[in-house]
């Protein structure tokens, strides 16, 4: 897969392109339908399959806020590569880009600059200044001979359209199994193992504390079965997301994972953490001994769930993103 920076003046796109258009936050099952179609059309014609990917999230420009999202640009690159996409066009979404008319997006960016010959898109896709552009405009451009078009029906889950918004909402509620079903793979965040309060060791359950510098959507405070990937190890663990209510010390939100049967020092190592199943919400215990009893029960239950995962989903490790 090649990555071309649209912001630079020295990039060259020579081959005709089949482009899938969308935000691709999460690269969920709906997005995957677009990618599969783009790959199929590109193989049929001998063209390249491509995606236009923004270096930043569009809402950070259109409606600045502390918005949390499912995937970083690096996450998207990795998933698009695994999906078989040939080319990613990287572009900065800023006020200037947002102010471009729908005509400029179609005629200059897609047709002239990116050499698009076929577009794969969902029915609700919007583009251009004030999101004035729609599928209706793409159909007109197709009629004018600029490119051909494939419109993809919504992929549904529980009777409703799968969307990045639905997935973000499910994760924020702790409903990681529903989120994983819509993503088509376990919800995964990446970061670095950092020093924490070191209470886990004293409780008999040492933890790897994940520090993240990207604004991922975090699961609701609680305890989860997770799957971790380090440089030289991967396996299951139990993860607590929250503020340690038993100790009530005003702690910030932490992501602490007890990695099953793992005892190495891993500070400053990169770690990926996939959320597989919610166990319970965080509770404030009246003393340390009560918390330890609960941790033993958590450990017993989550280890049994991990065994079920291995038996029922023999391919699940390959699904972890």
- Helix percent reads 25-40%
* H/E element sequence: EEHEHHEHHEHEEEHHEHEEEEEHH
What does the largest sheet look like?
6 strands, parallel
- DSSP helical segment count: 11
Low-confidence stretches: none
Q: How confident is the prediction overall: mean pLDDT?
A: 89
Helix vs. strand class:
alpha/beta
Please tell me what the overall shape is. elongated
Topology overview:
Blueprint: E1 2-5, E2 17-20, H1 29-45, E3 48-54, H2 59-62, H3 73-82, E4 87-91, H4 95-98, H5 102-113, E5 116-122, H6 135-143, E6 148-152, E7 156-157, E8 160-161, H7 164-172, H8 176-183, E9 187-194, H9 199-203, E10 208-211, E11 222-229, E12 234-242, E13 254-259, E14 270-280, H10 288-312, H11 316-319
Written description of the protein model:
The protein has helices at 29-45, 59-62, 73-82, 95-98, 102-113, 135-143, 164-172, 176-183, 199-203, 288-312, 316-319; strands spanning 2-5, 17-20, 48-54, 87-91, 116-122, 148-152, 156-157, 160-161, 187-194, 208-211, 222-229, 234-242, 254-259, 270-280. By secondary structure, it is an alpha/beta fold. The protein is elongated, with a radius of gyration of 22 Å. It starts with a strand and ends with a helix.
Give descriptors for this structure.
six-stranded antiparallel barrel; 11 helices; elongated; alpha/beta; 321 residues; 14 strands
Can you describe this structure in just a few lines?
This protein is α/β, with parallel strands linked by helices.
């Amino acid at each position: 897969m090649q990555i071309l920076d649209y912001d630079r003046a020295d990039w060259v796109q020579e081959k005709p392109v089949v482009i899938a258009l969308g935000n691709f936050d999460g690269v969920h099952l709906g997005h995957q339908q677009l990618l599969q179609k783009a790959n199929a059309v590109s193989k049929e014609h001998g063209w390249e399959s491509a995606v236009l990917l923004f270096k930043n999230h569009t809402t950070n420009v259109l409606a600045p806020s502390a918005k949390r999202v499912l995937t970083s640009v690096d996450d998207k690159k990795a998933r698009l590569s695994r999906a078989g996409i040939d080319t990613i066009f990287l572009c900065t979404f800023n006020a200037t880009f947002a102010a471009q008319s729908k005509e400029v997006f179609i005629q200059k960016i897609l047709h002239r600059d990116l050499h698009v010959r076929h577009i794969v898109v969902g029915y609700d896709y919007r583009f251009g200044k004030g999101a004035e552009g729609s599928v209706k405009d793409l159909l007109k451009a197709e009629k004018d001979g600029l490119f051909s078009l494939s419109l993809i029906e919504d992929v549904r889950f529980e009777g409703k359209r799968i969307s990045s918004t639905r997935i973000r909402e499910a994760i924020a509620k702790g409903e990681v199994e529903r989120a994983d079903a819509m993503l088509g793979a376990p919800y995964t965040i990446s970061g670095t193992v950092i020093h924490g309060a070191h209470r886990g060791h004293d409780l008999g359950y040492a933890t790897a504390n994940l520090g993240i510098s990207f604004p991922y959507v975090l699961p609701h405070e609680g305890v989860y079965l997770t799957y971790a990937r380090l440089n030289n190890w991967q396996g299951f663990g139990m993860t607590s997301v929250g503020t340690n209510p038993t100790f009530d010390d005003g702690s910030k939100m932490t992501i602490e994972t007890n990695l099953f049967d793992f005892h190495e020092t891993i500070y400053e190592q990169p770690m990926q953490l996939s959320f597989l199943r919610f166990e319970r919400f965080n509770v404030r215990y009246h003393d340390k001994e009560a918390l330890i009893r609960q941790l033993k029960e958590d450990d017993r239950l989550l280890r049994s769930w991990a065994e079920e995962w291995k038996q029922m989903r023999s391919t699940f490790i390959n699904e972890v993103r």
